[in-house]
Amino acid sequence: MIASPLPALVGRQRECTALDNLLAGLRAGGSCVMVVRGEAGIGKSVLLEYMAAQASRVQVTWARGVEADMELPYASLHQVCAPFLDGVEELPQPQRDALRVAFGTAVGDPPDRFLVGLAVLTLVTRASETRPVLVLVDDAQWLDQVSLQTLEFVARRLLAEPVAMVFAVRDPEGQSALTGLPALQLRGLDAASAGELLEGAVGGRLEERVRDRFVAETHGNPLALLEFSRGRSAAELAYGVDASSASVVQGPVASRVERDFAGRLGALPAATRTLLLIAAAEPVGDVRLLIRAAASLGITPDAAPAKAAGLIEFGEPVRFRHPLVRSAVYHGAEPEDRRAVHRALAEATDPLLDPDRRAWHAAQAADGPDEEVAAGLEQAADRARQRGGIAAEAVLLERAVEVTPDPWPRGRRALAAAEAHFSAAAPERATELAAVADLYPLSVLDRARLARLRARILFARSRSDEAAPLLLNAAAQFTAAGSPLARETYLEAISATIFAGRVHGPTGARAAAIAARASGAPSSGSKAADALLDGVAALLADGSETAVPALREALDLLEHEELRTREATVRWLLLAPVALESFIHWAWDLHAWDTLSTRAVRLARDIGALGSLPPALIYAGGVHIHYGDFAEADRMIDEADAIATATGHAPHKYATLVLAAWRGEADVAAGIIEEARERAVQRGEVSLLGAMGYIQGVLFNGLARYEEAIEAARTGIEHDGFNFTGLSLVEHVEAATRCGELDQARASLARLTELTRAADSGWARGASARSEALLADGEAADRLYRTAIEEFGRGGVVVEVARTHLLYGEWLRRAQRRAQAREHLRTAHDMFDAMPAHAFAERARRELIATGEQVTARDTTPANALTPQESQVAALAADGMTNARIGAELFISPHTVEWHLRKVYVKLGISSRRALPDILDSARAR
Questions:
Q1: Among 82, 521, 530, 870, which residue carries the largest CB count within 10 Å?
Q2: Buried b or exposed e, range 435-453, using 16+ CB within 10 angstroms
Q3: What are phi and psi of 35, to 5 degrees?
Q4: How far apart are CA 58 and CA 80, in angstroms?
Q5: Least confident stretch, 6-10, 186-190, 559-563, 850-854
């Protein structure tokens, strides 16, 4: 809005002080984010103007949201970045390319919006090296969706840069925007301040009761106080808020102010009203475009009456006094007048320089179906998609549907709009447009796409196994159409049952696998995807004997398949979870787990796919848990959580729980486990029930709470899911033997032996041998424990090596072989203590004391005091990476990297990165 003079900031001393403190912190080199919230007219924009006026020695950049149906992707982000675009050439290439495509200055694969966000973070951070940067965003609730999401990502990643971001958000329209960021809530002025502002506006004192009634009727809203008193004397206000107009005193304050603005329009000349309508219909505020449109309508631009009425300011750009003025002008006009104005704007817009805006105005001008207009919108939607503006694509396609005259293209466009809305995280709108598409004739291929979309919506909402039959139906339709999407959809159906359903039953994973194998679906075009589907289908339909060799063939393809496009990389990342679950729980292959998760992390980083990176990091963290490197696992989990939070996703709790279980942190795990179990029951997520059974089995076995462990592990065994059965059987055998439930233990051992036989890996053979040892005696037990240690070592499963030393030592002590027992118990204790796995280490310590051994506390090193993020930064710096490369790797700014390194140097007692390799190597050796 057009700001009031700054001295009029009556009653906002507290808010001004908060903003002054923010600026002081910014000048001192700190980062800060604040969201100023409140209803229309409460003073948010004025406070932002106040900040800009106070921001001496600071670079200020603005973005202003404008209420409009038109969604131009990255338009608002471009406003923010405009002063810094000279620095684009200095960005790392992936960031540079992403930003260029987003801003329409280059052609390429649609960029991941989070990679665009990282580019913006780097851009403003580098600009702040000369002077601090203040980003002001007014009416953030009206920014184009992808700009708002990107700016929120940047705000959540600020840490040590001299950059501040202040957003103004109107409530209630923007209540869901920017949640979780520090907020400054604005309310109406108190009675004394409101009275002072009112009397200043009318130029005289008011009788106290009149003043108080006026303040009460406006709820202390500054804009309402100023606008309702505008042009009125103290005498005219003697009876409160213009008693001659009942509509003004009824309804919410914002609506009353808008009606007040509308009332002023009638007194303006017709040409001026038309000029205002052109400005209201054109959200960018381009003066030259407005003049051309006015000429097209045959009017001479005369803004003087509107300026005199305090409604608009004709500068560059054109700005209304307040968004409510724009709303009053546009919505108060007759429909035919709005269409005429949009038609003039379409004619005045350059079709080569700005085809999207021209297409949108042409659509708004249409008074009925028009194929030429619909085709223009479809082309604009395709350009939006190429720039990464999925929400804009959805809006443009939806409008195209409305003006499409013929049923065939209308159905096709409705389906495309529904798919775009689903990709833009708007499942409700996607459902509505899918229903529209279903009303019109569709090709066989489009019918299959519609079936798949509905299944995806259902699965996203409830994780229900009801989605699998719908996906199978879609896959069968793709097969009938000869589409390469068939095999991909069969794999998606199996994946849905793996993560949300059961293996057996009519909607289970096995039924999906049998259907896939019998389909005769054509190749997907990806040898790795086809091999993975064949392997997983064989696993579910035939069992592991024939499936594991097929899975190993798929592993080689997944590891080495060349991915030439971003789309191919995204598809590979979508395959990775199914592949990983197969290799972890059926092939018992830690090497494959490591190989695939490492590639997933690398690919996600390379293309900036921050939606895929957190789960990839979680899988990689799981590898390091089994390697016994809990510190590295912690770093990966911490990074995954930070990125998930910054991108607005829920953190992944699974790896956190597994790590807490191995560490024996019952207090950390308890609440999360119960919450996860309740969610699993409510949503039918069978795999989550299996995970909780395994996790609690590890936790309670480590704490020697065997009765609880046996019950928890039984849940993991009986859940009929694709994963966690084998791992839960291992926990169940140990707990059952410790509880004397030998029949239960033998039954679980028999199932475990069957599951591990085909895997033929060190991990599988170690698990089978150790579980058998727990039920054996004498030389047989002795031999089996030694075999388990050797096999787990061959498989690289360090935590299980340590655990087998513990169990072997416990068995040796009870066999009165104390000297040998001490050897294995000491090894177990040292390994667990180094991880650290506290509960298992405590078990080993108690056993050692029982043998007469004295156990000393482990020495701590300075490196143990580093946070996960500091450890990660230190490790990359020790490897020789520059701050810029570390920042690109971890999706943080180089300033934040340097901030972490300064803290690392202090904690480690060093002065530069040259000392990092030696001190970190020394810490690892301990």
A1: 521
A2: ebbbebebeeebbbbbbbb
A3: -115, 115
A4: 15
A5: 6-10
pLDDT recorded at residue 682? 66
Is residue 491 packed enough to be buried (19+ CB in 10 Å), middle (13-18) or exposed (0-12)? buried
User: In which band, very low, low, confident or very high, does the pLDDT at 328 lie, cut at 50, 70 and 90?
Assistant: confident
What is the C-alpha separation between 743 and 755, in angstroms, rounded?
19
pLDDT digits (tens, 9 = 90+) for 287-305: 899 999 999 999 888 888 8
Q: Is 23 in contact with 60 (CB distance < 8 Å)?
A: no
- In angstroms, the CA 679 to CA 675 distance is 6
Single-letter amino acid, residue 450: L
Beta strands 32-38 and 163-170, pairing class: parallel
Q: Does 320 score more than 80 pLDDT? A: yes
Which residues, 6 or more positions from 23, have their beta carbon under 8 angstroms from its beta carbon? 51, 54, 55, 58, 134, 164
User: What's the angle, vertex CA 620, arms to CA 826 and CA 651, rounded to 5?
Assistant: 110
Sole residue written with tokens 């840490």: 159
Q: How far apart are the first and last CA of the chain?
A: 62
The one-letter code for the residue type at 254 is A
Asked whether the predicted pLDDT for residue 241 surpasses 50, the reply is: no
Name the 3-class secondary structure at 60: strand
Residue 738 — pLDDT band, cuts 50, 70, 90? Answer: very high
* Residue-wise burial string across 554-586, b where 16 or more C-beta atoms lie within 10 A, e elsewhere: bbeebeebebeebeebbbbbebbbbbbbbbbbb
Element (H, E) at 164: strand 163-170
Q: How far apart are CA 437 and CA 454, in angstroms?
A: 12
Alpha helices by DSSP H, 55-161: 75-81, 93-102, 113-127, 145-157
d(CA 441, CA 443): 7
Question: Who contacts 149 (Cβ-Cβ below 8 Å, separation ≥6)?
Answer: 113, 117, 648
Asked whether the beta carbons of 61 and 191 are under 8 A apart, the reply is no
For residue 885, the model assigns a pLDDT of 82
- ω into 836 cis (within 30 of 0): yes
468 three-state secondary structure = helix
**Which residue type is seen at 767?**
A
Residue 816 is inside which H or E element, if any? none
Is residue 681 classed as helix, strand or coil in its secondary structure?
helix
- Average pLDDT, stretch 282-286? 82
Show the tokens assigned to 749. 């051992």
Write out the H or E segment, with its range, that includes residue 823. Answer: helix 818-834
As a whole number of angstroms, the distance between CA 403 and CA 367 comes to: 9
Greater model confidence, 253 or 377: 377
Report how far residue 268's alpha carbon sits from residue 274's, in angstroms, rounded to the nearest whole number: 10
pTM over 0.90: no
Mark residue 41 as left, alpha or beta (left: phi above 0; alpha: psi -120 to 50; beta: remaining).
left
CB atoms within 10 A of CB 6: 12
pLDDT value of residue 858: 57
**Which tops the pLDDT comparison, 262 or 489?**
489
How many CB atoms are closer than 10 A to CB 681? 12
Residue partners of 255: CB distance under 8 A and separation at least 6: none
Query: What is residue 71's predicted lDDT score, i.e. its pLDDT?
Result: 74
User: Which region among 26-40, 271-285, 846-860 has the lowest average model confidence (pLDDT)?
Assistant: 846-860
What helix, strand, coil percent values describe the chain, rounded to 5? 70, 5, 30
Each as own residue / partner, the long-range contacts of residues 291-297 (CB below 8 Å, 24 or more positions apart, any chain) are 292/348, 293/341, 293/344, 293/345, 293/347, 293/348, 294/344, 295/348, 296/344, 296/347, 296/348, 297/340, 297/341, 297/344
